[in-house]
Structures are given as structure tokens and as C-alpha cells.
């Protein structure tokens, strides 16, 4: 099973429906084209780790990183 840190506790991530992945892919494509055309930033998807604070983190389905915040990207984490 997959786990994520929620409010300082490890919680098992539920499986998502197959349609969820199809819709996520389509959304990433549409938003990605717009962001690229206007040089606004980049998107990451569900495997990217997002640090909320010292004890909390999430793996969002989709996450926008404005160009001005690229300095917050670490090897395996956005802080």
C-alpha cells in the first residue's frame, strides 16, 4: 500500500478510479499547453512530494509551480 503524511500521521492512500487518471492526464495536457505558451511555470502530478511544514507533506494530484518559485524545488521535494 501507498502512504502519505497527513497532519503528522501516515495514512494509507486509497486507490483511485481509472477515470481519475484519464482526467488528470487531460487536465495536465490542457493546462501545460497554456502555461508553456505564456511561460508561467510548470505542473507536476501525483508523484511529486509537497512539504507543508516540518511534520506535514502531501502528494497532490496536480500542483502548479510558478516560474518565480523554481528555487523551492529540491531533488525529491518542493519546499
Walk me through what this model shows.
It is a single chain. The chain has 79 residues and is an alpha+beta fold. It is 27% helix and 32% strand. It has one helix and six strands, in the order ββαββββ. The chain has a two-stranded antiparallel ribbon. Strands 3-6 form a two-stranded antiparallel ribbon. Strands 4-5 form a two-stranded antiparallel ribbon. The longest helix has 21 residues, at 18-38. It is flat, with a radius of gyration of 14 Å. The two termini are 25 Å apart. The mean pLDDT is 83.
Distance between the termini: 25 Å
Kindly name the structural category: alpha+beta
- The succession of helices and strands, N to C, reads EEHEEEE
Number of helices: 1
Q: For the CA atoms, what is the radius of gyration?
A: 14 Å
Largest sheet: 2 strands, antiparallel
Strand order of the largest sheet: 1-2
Overall pLDDT level: 83
**Share in helix:** 25-40%
Beta fraction = 25-35%
Instruction: Name the shape in a single word.
Output: flat
Q: How many distinct beta strands? A: 6
* pLDDT < 50 stretches: none
Amino acid at each position: 500500500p501507498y502512504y502519505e503524511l497527513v497532519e503528522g500521521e501516515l495514512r494509507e492512500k486509497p486507490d483511485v478510479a481509472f477515470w481519475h487518471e484519464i482526467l488528470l492526464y487531460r487536465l495536465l495536457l490542457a493546462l501545460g499547453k497554456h502555461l508553456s505558451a505564456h511561460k508561467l511555470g510548470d505542473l507536476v502530478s501525483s508523484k511529486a512530494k509537497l512539504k507543508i511544514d516540518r511534520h506535514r507533506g502531501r502528494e497532490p494530484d496536480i500542483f502548479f509551480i510558478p516560474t518565480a518559485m523554481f528555487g523551492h524545488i529540491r531533488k525529491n521535494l518542493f519546499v
